[in-house]
Design a protein that fits this description.
Number of helices: 14
Strand content: 15-25%
Strand order of the largest sheet: 3-2-1-4-5-6-7
Radius of gyration: 23 Å
CATH architecture of the largest domain: 3-Layer(aba) Sandwich
Largest sheet: 7 strands, parallel
Number of strands: 15
Helix content: 25-40%
Distance between the termini: 29 Å
Number of domains: 2
Structural class: alpha/beta
CATH class of the largest domain: Alpha Beta
Order of helices and strands: EHEEHEHEHEHEHEHEHEHEHEHEHHHEE
CATH superfamily of the largest domain: Glycogen Phosphorylase B
């Protein structure tokens, strides 16, 4: 298809790589859409070798410590949106954009329709701070509810100004107000199956891990309550009483981002608190922090079992990373997990508070490694079939086409924003 005839789709996200990176590459390679990425300008060097061309934008500063804390997330999103707005106007003058797909939580789509007059698809993982209410032992307080409402205001407004919304799970969709749900589509992101074979003694030694004995693992962006790190610690303590040859690998940062536990920990990090509650010595565990993605997959290949007692989190993709790597998985019945794994053929799913169940099933899988490996292979096959980048791109293409049709059916808007482009004296009327 001639380049001039292809619909132009702009994927907007301040980070790189991001939720859209793999999907955008697949759509680009198919050739019937012109795909462009728009990311924070400081990250353009990282995208230099990406087959999808990327442009940059500058965020209009960051909230200061003096900012009103209840609108911190909202202000951060508006600052991103203002920086994006200037670049969107420049893009419109260069060549019209047919569809914008952007992360609503960062303000990426807030002004897109008003400035470009194009179809808009707003992505969101969760509408607000729902993860903070996931653990009743760390009660949600009024101030957090108020701050969460401001965060929701940005996401909900972005969806109101979009033709369609997209979320990664039905679990996430049902958390939005009923008024918005009819325009929200569900499409999981795409994950590439790892072709790396299981790590043997040499691979383990190269990573500083024990060459012999089973290794169980926990991994996520952070070690916090919403991810169930404390449950993992309790399970490990009890497993070691049964299997003294057991080794433990934990990958994640010592921080709380999504949860509500910090005020209840008497100055400890959740990692410290969880180890203290479980009576575990930090020196008996192999700890790893943030690392390049290829290195992360090397570590996953060395695990005999992953234990991930997730409580909440649409964006907590460690479960799907375990599936992609073929790691046998003992995980949760909460959040999106039952949508992506069929128990007991592909994984063992338990209520995250079921300590006895986690210990019992972990012992069974460690004692019968072939059964565990069969679970890992089945989960990997499920991901290859349903959650590959190609399947995700199919879903996003349908959503993009539907958004364009909705915009065409709506017709040209009768009003627009009349403004002067920065640095010029020429007025520019932009259809809404």
């Amino acid at each position: 298809m001639p380049a001039a005839d292809r619909p132009r789709v702009l994927f907007i996200h301040p980070a790189y790589p991001n939720q859209f990176t793999r999907i955008a590459r697949v759509l680009h390679d198919r050739g019937d859409l012109e795909i462009v990425g728009l990311i924070d300008q400081s990250l353009l060097p990282q995208a230099a070798d990406d087959p999808v061309p990327h442009l940059g934008f500058r965020t209009d500063g960051v909230p200061t410590p003096a900012s009103y804390p209840f609108v911190h997330a909202f202000e951060a999103g508006i600052r991103q949106a203002r920086g994006l707005a200037h670049q969107l106007v420049l893009l419109r003058r260069h060549r019209p954009v047919d569809v914008v797909v952007g992360h609503a939580g960062f303000g990426a789509t807030l002004y897109a329709r008003s400035l470009l007059g194009c179809a808009v698809v707003a992505y969101a993982e969760l509408p607000g701070y729902h993860a903070q209410a996931a653990r009743p032992e760390f009660p949600f307080v009024l101030d957090q509810l108020l701050a969460g409402g401001a965060c929701e205001a940005l996401t909900h407004t972005s969806l109101l100004h979009a033709d369609l919304g997209v979320v990664p799970s039905h679990h996430a969709r049902q958390l939005f107000p009923p008024e918005l749900q009819p325009k929200i589509r569900v499409q999981m992101e795409g994950f590439e199956v790892s072709t790396r074979p299981p790590g043997g003694p040499a691979e383990r030694r190269a990573l500083g891990l024990p060459a012999e004995g089973p290794i169980v693992g926990f991994f996520g962006r952070t070690l916090e309550a919403v991810r169930g790190f404390d449950v993992f610690a309790q399970v490990v303590r009890r497993l070691r009483e049964i299997r003294p040859d057991l080794h433990v690998l934990v990958i994640g940062e010592e921080a709380t981002i999504y949860g509500n536990e910090t005020p209840y920990l008497n100055g400890l990090s959740f990692k410290q608190w969880a180890l203290q509650q479980a009576g575990l010595d930090a020196g008996s565990i192999h700890w790893r922090g943030f690392m390049p993605y290829d290195a992360f997959r090397q570590y996953l290949a060395c695990l005999d079992l992953a234990i991930l007692p997730l409580f909440e989190g649409a964006g907590n993709w460690n479960v799907l990373e375990a599936m992609a790597a073929g790691v046998p998985l003992l995980t949760s019945t909460r959040a999106y997990v039952p949508e992506v794994l069929n128990a007991p053929r592909q994984a063992i799913l338990l209520d995250p508070y079921d300590l006895d169940g986690f210990v019992r099933h972990a012992r069974l899988l460690l004692d019968h490694p072939e059964r565990a490996r069969a679970l890992g292979r089945a989960a990997q096959a499920r991901l290859r079939r349903d959650f590959s980048p190609e399947r995700a791109a199919d879903g996003y293409r349908r959503i993009i086409d539907e958004a364009m049709e909705r915009r065409r059916s709506a017709g040209a808007a009768a009003h627009g924003w009349h403004m002067t482009h920065p640095g010029t004296t020429a007025a520019l009327a932009v259809p809404a």
